[in-house]
Protein 1
Amino acid sequence: MKNINILLIIILSFFYIGKCWSEEVNLYSARKEHLIKPLTDLFEKETGIKVNLVTAKSSQLHQRVLREGKNSPADVLLTTDAGNLWKASNENFFQPIYSELLNKRIKPKYRDENNLWFGLSLRARIIVYSLDRVKKDELKGYKYLSNPIFKNRILIRSSSNVYNQSLIAHMISKYGEDKVEIWAKGLVNNFARDPAGGDRDQIKAIAAGIGDIAVVNSYYIINMLNSDNKGIFDSLGIYFPHDNEMGTHFNISGAGLLLNAPNPANGKKLIEFLASEKAQLIYSNNNFEYPVIENVEIPNDLKRLGKYTEDSTNIYEYGKLSFKAIKLADRVGWK
Ligand code: FE
């Protein structure tokens, strides 16, 4: 009997060790831990695959993957903005994922054309404006922000930020480089101040009377509406820029499977899970981002922002034009 017990323990230990060894996935995430942890916890619970999570800034993770090279333990890189994903794929970070599930769930416009990365949540770059100093019918598409009527009134962060680089790249894809350069000059002329701070700071600057119109990502607005700062929105309006030529600029957060992933099958499973209905619901409820798959009920917080007309451009186009966008911003003196 004693021998049988010992044998049982040995068999169980082998099973357990085997399970620990094979069923794990290493995730490098530029999303903050509190945003991604509810998703990885659910993934672990549902699949029994342990997620080893490393979180850091997007640029730090990019450098880390480069530094680690072939020996990188990372399976999946999760980051924000099509510009960052494109940069990683351009530097040969990823291997393609052939997944019917991902191709079915995620529209082609939200994923890389060669299946190297997949969008997992959506954010819009939109306008917050002073209700006292701006009439809603004065607002139109992004192009119109360079109109001299907005002289000394526009608030927007630095062009070194990838959100603005992607917006400029998007506009280049719509209007061509020459026209966007003229536009960007006009925009810089309309700045209420030299770019300073992040998106939230632009909203606060309207409330402080420094400018009248701020260009910001949608989730920052909801974060502020759910914070002690919500009072400032009593005198602020929200507008999704669009005109006949260009709808609202949306961007993604997304993920790719790394070229030397030690657990590629589990990496693929994790990305597929993040595109599931359950995970998408958590994304929009916790991060206040729009789901990337259809037919997911968005939380009331997101509905509060209002209706929009999204532009039709494929998001991977932004990446391709990002170098041009950075140089263009430099030329026009957008700091
Ligand atoms: Fe952000």
Note: The pocket of fe (iii) ion is lined by residues 217 (CB under 6 Å).
Protein 2
Amino acid sequence: MREYKFIFKNIWKASPAYIGVNVLNVVLQYISFAVSLLFYKVIVDLFIYGQPEMEKVIVGLVVFYALKIVCESYNNWTVNIYNSLQQIKIREYVSSLIYHKCKHIDIECYEGAEFYDEYARAIEDGPGRLQDTANLVSSFLSALLKIGTVIGLFFSLGYIFIIVAVIYCVQSWLTLKLTNRLFYRGYLLDTPINRRADYINGIFRGYQYVKELKLYRAYDFFARRFADIKDQLKLLKKKRVADLLKILFTSNLAGSCLKAFVNIYVIYKIVQGEYTVGDFTLVFASVIALSESVSGIINTLPNLKNNKKIIGSLIRLLNQEGRSYGNATLPEKEQLEIDIEDVSFAYPNEKERNVLSHISLQIHEGEKIAIVGENGSGKSTFLKLLLGLYEPTEGKMAIGGKEYCEYDREEWQKLFGVVFQDYLIYQVSIAQNILFKENLDEEDEKLVWEALEFSGLDSRVRSLDKGINSVLLREFSEEGVFLSGGEYQRLAIARAYARKARWIVFDEPTSALDPIAADDVMGKLYRLGEQKTVICVSHRLTTTSSSDRILVFDKGRIVECGNHRELMDRQGLYYQMFMKQARYSQ
Ligand code: ADP
């Protein structure tokens, strides 16, 4: 029931008149049905057994067809015009609920297949299923009303029809149960396979994959995988179709036998003089209405059940609470220090393996800190903890004397401007890539240019016809612009700069830049001023040697800490790494 409450509550919020308009449609359709059912019996009996007054008959016919036209027109308007216009509103409303919720879903949720099986479908299909379910419910109610009316008529005609109707409903219900079970099992089996197929479709149409697909000739590999997946689906469907055919054949046979019995029985009763010819048309129309309504319900229920499952996932998604945090705000002016005390961390999907162990550290505001270490030593993970994307498994992390969990999470994250190793570029304008804002005012444009100057992308952007309003890439615009790898990285750096955050966190910010450009960006980073704290992961040790402090990570621990001189004198891991790189560059 909670799914239906959710559906109607949200449809009501998105489109208040929707339910009223559709309920009126159900009522009018019912009136049209009930009047039609009786009208033909009355007319036939009048002409065969009575003395019809032509004037009254003509008035009756005009009223009857006028009513039918009104009901039909209202139905057409509701289904084809009104509902399809409201569809946009309802979908948009539900999608906005989902997008706002996604902000609070913890990152670890995205790291398991369960999330994709459960929620990805809710995100993709959910918004459309609300209206779909409402329409199915109205078809269901219409069908129930018709069945009720037909059963009422059968009561007045004789108990034999009730028995027939009950048998018909029971056999239809059995058919429904069997087909439902078949489809539901199929749905569960198909979902993970369909997701794999969607993933490969995404690879074939995604710009980011094109180069590797071509160079590694991966087209054939993925095409084969796609074909295998489709074969698996075909096999599953084949088996299902064979089972479905058996069920439907048995059901049709039973239904036809019952209809034949009813027809023969009524003809026999007319010959006996117990029924009128009008009763025959009434029973005939009722049997048709009964079988249509029951098969309508049969078709409706599996879809309702399927929708209920997707809406259930949608509700669970919308009810999902991220990690709960307090509502403390960051002090504006005060010096902010980060205290990290004996922090250890294991990824939630691999709880038994500590990726970081016993990290203790204090970072003062304004410090320029470099983090170095071999691949897999835990540098990026450390940054992710700092950014509040994950929680430490053990230990304490505090800013300005308050633990991270006391802060509002967005407030904590506001502190940081970040460039990730795997930064992303979006197919919107350069300015929108930097500020994520729709309409820019003069101040915004000034900030965008300042950020571009900082990252060294300004002259390239000035050379473009549309400057900062140039759209990137060409999936949506023929005028889209392609930049080089290094230029995209500069754009990501400009994005971090434009946040005007007090702490700047960079994970390999210069990997796509040539050595001179890298020195330039790092030099600018380190000259950002007293108030800006810079924490930077880099493999290029020459670019990090001017940091105030260098943290050397090894197997999830900080094994050395000091400035370049101190670490070189110590002749430990940093010294070895530095000498190796120096030899290599010579
Ligand atoms: P670095 O940045 O030093 O190269 P990372 O912090 O990225 O290292 O990775 C440290 C370890 O954590 C690696 O062994 C990696 O396999 C593991 N790891 C990284 N991300 C995840 C994740 N989302 N789930 C599980 N393990 C992860």
Note: Residues 218-272 form the longest helix (55 residues).
Protein 3
Amino acid sequence: MSSLTDDLQTIQSQSLQEVERIISLEELETLRLKFLGRKDGLLTKVLQALPTLSPAERKDVGRQANEVKKALETALENRRQAIEDAQIAQSLAKESIDLTLPGTPVLRGKLHPLTQVLEEIVSVFTRLGFNLAEGPEVETDDNNFTALNHPPDHPARDAHDTFYLKDLKDESGLPLLLRTHTSPVQIRYMRTHQPPLYIVAPGRVFRHEAVDATHSFVFHQVEGLAVDKDISMADLKGMLTLFAQHLFGPGAEIRFRPSYFPFVEPGIEVDISCTLCGGKGCRVCKQSGWLEMLGAGLVNPNVFRAVGYDPRKVTGYAFGIGVERVAMFKYGVDDMRLFFDNDIRFLQQF
Ligand code: DAH
């Protein structure tokens, strides 16, 4: 009998000691089974032996056994709690975030500088009431040249270094071409609309030219056309002044120089005062204080005739802005090729 009491004491001291050394929940469960397992737990066995004892002994040993069981259960529970707390503390330490660290930068996409400038140019005019017009990049000879007062064999055609699509012909058997300017959109629009009309037509144009710092075989223009009654050079100058001041600041000035384009008469070239040097003269404006920016003029009566308008009833102005030129002057970029290389380090600056 006293041997059971001894057993219980051994079980108690042994189990309580072992509990303290446990560091994982799995080991803890193994230990629980070792002493309290239903079938052959050491303590369970003592309890199973109780019915063989005399009533008096059974009472004493039974009480002692229950105390050992309670003590062990409490120890197991405390240990389980301690292990879980340690695990939580460990994963918190591992997952902790230093909120003062700089974040991972997220690169945001943005519009290409040429698109930005093109949209800015267009918006100056659309906000003044101009409509947006568009035309295809593959054009007919008539839209690109003849209706714009470049008859066949007219020497002005030579200035355009045209890409012809030799296997594709229009209705009159002439080869289609890649438009050399956005001016054909004037023809398309006037043939489908009646005056008064005010439009801007942005787009890509193509010329068979060698690529260098100021030339490319593909570039962008924004065409403008206003047709109404009594339109004069003064209207054109007012509109282009607004344009220049919007893009280059309120101090920008413009000047007109006589020039020649078959579809306007008179034709002019428009300079904008150099915004980089304020007109004093610098590398970009080649010391002249002025930047050549666009071509313009009053619509030639022959163009009105070609689209079926009566030149005695309507007048108009037209202009063609080179988007790359404007972007180069606006940002002080001295090589047009940079816009087409698409080097992300260049593009990110805009
Ligand atoms: N189409 C001309 C070119 O690409 C630019 C131009 C000049 C457009 C005068 C116009 C204009 O509308 O009036 O060289």
Note: The mean pLDDT is 92.
Protein 4
Amino acid sequence: MKINVLDSSIYNLISAGEVVERPASVVKELVENSIDAGAKSVKIEVFSGGKSKIRVTDDGAGIAKDDLLTAFLPHATSKIHKKDDLFSIQTLGFRGEALPSIASVSQMTIISKPKDAINGYSISIKDGKSTIPTEAAAKTGTTVLVDRLFYNAPARKKFLKSPRTEMGLISDLLAKYIVAYPQVAFRLENGKHTIFNSSGRGNRQNALFEAYGKNIAEQMIPFDLGFLSPPSLNRNNRAQYHFFINGRPVHSRELSLVVDEAYFSFMPAHRYPIVFLFLDL
Ligand code: ADP
Ligand code: MG
């Protein structure tokens, strides 16, 4: 059979299958890009659980006009330049896949202005085609609008849950980032309702309060690697096991087992603690 190099529109769709599972994965990628851009403040606006619209606005470094189109090419990243960079990654992203992937399964608009630029510029991408950058009023930073997620991927769209459930996954995700990045002020809005509005003052204990409320924050026990719940504060699954390695959220079977074991003799059967563990390696 003839061997064929996939063109970028097909390649992006395949990688979207891995990167973009649901609205919460879009929010994760966009928020991580904002954090990587050094944002001090990130606003996330969600409509219908992200099924109709997600807009993320930050006050980070911005994207220069000439880079706006490049950012949507597969493997386009400003975070890695040479082989050695792979061994000292300081950012959450580095593979250059999120923007082209998300854009391939939605209608996306980006407005951005770097600090030293006079004007902002905006581009829109639809059906794999991008408009040329046009001047747009903007403050320093970046706004990414993701409209009609999975409009061209009906199988994916069908698999999404109710707006309420999708919103729940987004707010769980945000709560986690609020605690992990207390120096960033996050605001999460569900339509007209504000779900989170963290101060970004940099105090992790305070961030825990802002994300999880007074009741949980007061019971959690701080220690040098994070926070642990007393055995009396527990859940029926491990969804509140939060592990971060060098600031990056990770899933780790090994770490989960360590927590299970440490709590084993204190915990009722099939109950699990709330744990935040921040490891620097
Ligand atoms: P990655 O994060 O792996 O580099 P992405 O596809 O997520 O890849 O983003 C591509 C590039 O677009 C980034 O490397 C960055 O230069 C730029 N970019 C994306 N989002 C933002 C943002 N919110 N602020 C500034 N630059 C951004
Ligand atoms: Mg990224």
Note: The two ends are 47 Å apart (CA to CA).
